[in-house]
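lol ok so funny story. i was supposed to be doing the assay writeup but got distracted and ended up predicting the structure for this chain instead. priorities right. anyway since i did it might as well share w the group, maybe its usefull for someone
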Amino acid sequence: MAPGRCRSWLTAAGVAALWGIALCAPSTAETPDPNRIVVKDFMFMPNTLTVKAGSTVTWANRDDEPHTVVSNTGLFRSGAMDTNESFSFKFDTPGTYHFTCSIHPRMVGTIVVQ
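and the output, tada:
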């Protein structure tokens, strides 16, 4: 085989191998965290989350404004979370827990612990 053909074949094989690795490798960006609430567009998403007792729930602020997460019973309270900051709380006891953003009180959500 001529040297130019050999290089072309090796380049094509290398590109194909890289594509194969990229397509088969797990992606953390595509794997949603079932115990995560995203704060975006002045909403908690999902608005209601059901978890098992002992689970830790994380709220991640993806909005351009600061937000808080405050339990209506005072059980948990975050500080102001700026963009890309988060707050986590471990729910040990089954029950229904309501929360709001103290900065934007129309933002409400619920955690159901089973």
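DSSP finds one helix and eight strands in the chain. Residues 1-31 form one domain.
back to the writeup now i swear
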